[in-house]
Every structure is written in structure tokens, then in C-alpha cells.
Amino acid sequence: MVDLSVDFVGVKAANPFWLASGPPTDGKTKIERAFRAGWGGAVWKTLDAAPSAGDASAAFYRALHGGDRRVLALDGVERASDRDLALDLREIAEVKRAWPDRALIVSLAAPGDEESARRILAEIAATGCDGVELNFGCAPGARPAADAAARVEAATRWCKAATRMPALVKLAPLGDLVRRARAAKKGGADALTLIAAVDAIAGVDLDAMTPAGGVGGMGGPAVKPIALAAVASIAGDPEIAGLPIAAAGGVTTWRDAAEFIALGAGVAQVCSAAMTYGFRVVDELASGLTSFMAAEGYRRLDDFRGRAAANLVDGRRRERDRVLKAEIDQALCIQCGRCHVACEDAAYQAIFARVDGERRFVVNEAACVGCNLCALVCPIENCIKLVDKTEAARAAAE
Amino acid sequence: MPVVSEPPGIADVAKGRVDRATLAANFADLHPPLSPHQALVEADRCYFCYDAPCQRACPTAIDVALFVRQIAAGNPLGAAQTVLEANVMGGMCARACPTEALCEGACVRETAEGRPVRIGLLQRYAVDAQMATGKTPFSRGAPTGKRVAVVGAGPAGLACAHALAVAGHEATIFEKRDKPGGLNEYGVSAYRATGDFAQREAASILSIGGIATQYGVELGREITLDRLRRDYDAVFLALGLGAARRLGLAGEGALDNVVDAVDYAAELRQAESLARVPIGRRVVVIGGGMTAMDLAAQAKRLGAESVTIVYRRGLSQMKAGARQREFAQTNGALIRPWARPVAIEGHSGAASGVLFERTREDNGELVAAGGAFRLEADLVLLAIGQQGALDALAGASLRCDADGRIVVDEQRRASLAGVWAGGDCAAGARGLIAAAVEDGKRAARSIDAALRARA
User: Fold this and answer.
1) CB proximity A207 to B under 8 Å
2) Model ipTM?
């Protein structure tokens, strides 16, 4: 029997699928819809104790689309909540009372000084919520200050001094992430949320000749590789390895969540997928993760959490004497030729396009170095595989 | 070259008109299953709609958008669970449902590009993955000690018994034939149920435990409704339609080679070898529903030289939809609308032809239009529908409609206390496997509530 429940820095939840701070979590109405749909927790959209005047504008999003208008990334300029703080605090308390078994974390814009930290945290703690998430990635386009790490450490320390609630520190993948993460730990952070939205321009409107709104914060499938690297970087650093991590950035299906967990995350936060498809994406997330764990014999998430982090290998190196050769399964091949042109133009010219006068795509083993490009561009799953030919190569050399 | 007119009255009905290899191909999967690559490509086309029209169109309200998303995410067993939770016969439905009139017809991609997501094939992909594990994803509920009699092991009966077992009740199915499945086993065309699928599915459904079966037991003969009501805590009647409608023409009962379509379909499905199933050289099919279209197609695939479907009204009034009509036609059957039979001619005790009169509609009523024609026939298949088997319920004082179907409310309760009914034997039935399954589910829910209230 698979058990998806989590205990994340003392916060218990029925499953690791929590909504990330963002447009889906800016109020009781939506968060209760989400809880009814089965989400294990939610991070209330960032409260700002001192909102600056021009901040609160109507939401406007842009997207990066793939084929068939599949949403690959969502990007927005809406920043901190433009709702009345008192209303937010009241609703947070109501939601926590009505849903005691769901994790309810409150996102807070990193305070600028100790006094304001104390004041806002007192109010947040009074709601009975489960913890705070300090958002250091709020202002898009702003470069992290030279003393970013120092600011992270200070703000974290003020928060931890002001409340006993767990504090998650959310960082954007800019500059030296590990340095800022170390600073957060020094300041007393209980966990990290990786990653905050990435600075991005989704596209340019060529008719109006504008980048339609400037730089926004982007999330969704396109940022997942960046988020994976961020999560893995924590495991790779001796000072902060083992610090609990809430992953965020492109979690769309169960496999994405499982990948983050395999790299060490204890929670998978979701925003873009919920914005694209609605809260019901949690059905597929829970079902898929359960099926995967049942098939692999994992009873609890901890049974595989961090397993892949232990196998991290520097991508720039590969065993010198390991020989890999691509092999095209002619029974599955549909003769599109994509492998050939990729190899011709960008790799080692190691795939024949004609054999015995006929259109047929076959690897020239002598020239192939096993770079994997053909296997990646092939449209048919499992049609091209890399086969280990180390033994044969060794034997031939002797 | 002189024309030799064929002598009348030679009942040219023979087996083995088609060589074995062609026969095997003719009766292989009409819609071959999807490969893993095809399933991913197909699932990728789903837009994951809100309040999906496909789900609304499904008589069992399968969460189609979710199961397709699960397939796309590489979780076919999760997809199967989603399907089977709503419809325990998702496997047969995937093969036999008229999806063009249900889920696929409602698909937004039909609206967008005229190419719906191939939901039927995706559903088969998921359920086949589950069947390949040899396990059922369901488990029996804690035993309640309550016992329910289910009459009929067709879709409605099996679905009801299964749902009752999940609720922890004990179900006993009484089936008059010697195998379960109902029309899944004895009616659905062979090319839609290859590999003995109806039996494999029934076995999987029954494997949940808590369901006893008795074959060769018929209501009105070996058992009576009164007896069942006395011996069990509740009764669910899933009798199907026992009696074929009659044309009421002379020769109908007397002549050889005038066969009820449903009987012929059963013979086809149960044949050990299709090469040994006799088919007329010239076949006339009377009727306009899916049974008529499917049998006409099968008749051609068995090697009949000519197959003519005759329907008393117009093409658009046929119960069979355009896709089903086209299926019969592309297999080589000819459809002649606006004609009804007035006599079946025989020669030496066997059918030799059918005489038809042309018809038209006059103020909604069907009347003779003047003119007649004759079709030569070696085999006449009557596919004009069925009605309830009233003799089974004789003296039972169950309210039935004019067609002999049992009148039920939305909970599938019949007019007698403690008696529920569903599937084709219930009034208002849609004649779909999925509708029968839904009846079985609803009745089980209602029976469960009634049994718990009593306790």
C-alpha cells in the first residue's frame, strides 16, 4: 500500500502536491477549491507588509507555446498580492481552521528590516498557519544585489527570531545560488523552496513591436531543467546537503514530481500546471506517483527521495574508455531521416541515409561516438538506443 | 454468351465460401489496438477539457479526460483504474460502443478539425494493460451478510453483481446460457471481440469474489421470481430481450433459412470455426439497426455473393447511424429503404425469396406507396428488434410496457418491492452496453442503500 503522506519540516500533509505561491493561491475561494480537489497543501500568495505604490496592477500573462498551442511556460508581471492585508490574514485563519489537515504556508516578501519582520510575522503567526515562505525572488529584472547572500541571511535571521513557525526560503536561480542557500541556512532557514520564477520575456509582438510587458517571472515545463539543477545543487554542497527542499518549477505530471523527489525534494509545488489546466491536475499527479511507487516497491516517498542525487555525475565528463554506439531499430524506424540530418549538420556524420540504393537509416559504427543526439531527435520512442560496445571495442583493440 | 437464369428455390446455403486465410483476416480486429507510440500520439491530442463533453456523452460518465492524460503521462494502469471505476466493462465498451455517436462524436477536436481523439482505442489500450497483469484493481468489501439474486450474466447483471461485491454483499447470478457475457458473448460481432475477450472480461469481473454463478438456469423454468424474492434480500432482473419480434408473415416459422438475426449472430460467435458456418449465396437482411448492419457486413465477409438490407422507412430514420450504414455498404451490402416485406416465398420447405411492397409516410403513418419487387434469397435474416420475454415474468405482476419491458424508476426499482431491473429488459433502455452497465451500477447503489436501511 503506497503512502503519499509527508512530514515536511514538521508540517504534515496527505500528499506532497502543494500549490506554489501565485495566482491560484490569492485567496480563500481558490484555495478551498484546490483543497476540495485534493491538494495536500498550498502556499498563500505573497503578502507584502509594505507594498510600493506602482506594484498592484491587474494581472497580465504571456506564454511560450509549443506545437498545437501546448503551454510550455507561463510568465506574468503580477507581483505581490494586491489584496487588503487584513482580508488576507482573516482568510488565512479561516482556511486553516476549516482545513486542519492541509498544509497552509504563507508567502511573505522578504522584510527589509527587523522591526517590520517582527510585526508582520506576529500577524501571520496569529492566523494559525503552518509556516512562512520568504520570497527573495519578487522583483523581476532586478539584479541580485552584490550583498544578496548577506541580505538573505539577515532577513532569514529576523524571521526566525520573530516566530517559531518553520521558515522556507525561496530563491531564484540567479547568480550564485549555493552561496545564497548557505546564507539562508546560516540565518536559520528550515527549508529551501527552489526555484522562484525565472526572469523571462515570453516573446515579442512583431506587429506592435513590443515585448508585451517587459520582463516577467516565468514558470512551467520550460524551466523544469533549471529547477532540477537548482535542487540538485543543494545535495552537491557539503554545507547544505540534507536541507529540506520544496521543489517548484515545471511540475506538470507525476513524473516531474518524482524527478524532483529523486533529487531530494520533499514537496512538489505547482503553479503553472494549475493555471493551465485547473486544480484537477492533482488527480493525475497522485495517481501517477502512486502507480510508479507501487510498481517499484516504494511504500513511502522517503524510500526513493534523494536517490538520484547520490548518482550525480558532472555532465561534462564521461568515462574515457566506455564505448557507446547508437543503434537504429529498423522494425520501428519510420524513415523520417531526422537522425541523419542532425548527425550530418551537428555531430559526426555517422548515419547513412541510403543502403544498397534504398532510403534506409543505419548507423556507421566506426564514425559514431555515442553522443546521443540522434536518439533525442528521433520521433519514435525507443527506436534509437545507445548500446554499450566497450567489450567489443576492447577485444578489437587487442 | 447465353444468360442462364437461376432455377428458383435452390437454397444455396453453404459453408467455406471463403478460404481460411481470408476468413481469418475478415474476422481479425476491426480496429487493431494502438501500439505504445500510437497511444502517446493519440493521447497527446486531448485538450483535457473542463466538464468534458466526452464524459458527458458516456452513459457511465467515465472521466475520459483524466484517463487520456494518464496514458499521456505514461501511467496506463492508472488510466485503466479511472475507466474501470466508472465502467467495469470498459474493455468491451472500448471495442463495441458506437463511439462516433457518444464520446468521440462529442470530442472538441471533432469540432476543431473533424478528427476526434480516438477515445475508444485509447480506452482499449488502458484496459488491455490492466488485463495483461491478470489482476483486478478492485477488492471485495467487508461482508455484510446480505444476499442478492441477479438474473442474467450480461453487462447489466455482471456490473450490478460486481458493484454489490465491492459493497460487501453476496451476489448470486442465475444465467440461462452456459457462459456469462450476454450479448457480449452471443451477439457482438467477432471482429470486435477477438481473442475470446467477452469471457476474459467476465472472468476478470467475477474474480473479485463474493459472486456465485449458476448456469443453465432460466427464470420461469428452473427458478421463479417469487422464489427469488423469498430466498434473497433483493433481486435484480437483467434478462435482456428474450423474444425476437415477428414479422407476422406466413413462412416465417415454417421455412428453413429464415433466421432471427440474434440467433444467427450467436451461432457465428459460438462457431468453433468460421469456415463451418453456413451462409447463403444471396442474403436478405430485414431491419435497420446496428444488428442488421453488422450482420450484413459479416455475411459478406463470410462470402455471400449478394447481401441486401431492406428497411421499411428512410435511411435517416434507421436506428443505425451513418457510420454504421457506411460500414455495411463498404463491406459490399446494398441498402434499400422504403420497403417492407409482404411475403416470404419458399420452395421445398426452404426460403427462396422475399416479396416487398414499397412504402411512404402519410402523416407520420407508414403506408403502401404502390409497387412491389421481389428479392431472391437463400438466407433471410430478420433483424427487426426484440421485445421482452414476457413468459419468464408470467404471473409476476411486474408492470411492463407495451414491448414487454419492465417499468423502472431512476433508481432502477421495478413495481414490486425488493425487485430492481436494468439493461435491455428495462423500459427506456438505450440498447448500449454502457447504458446496461450504468443500470447495474445504479441498481446496486439503490439495493445497497435499501439493504443498509433495513439493517
Assistant:
1) no
2) 0.91
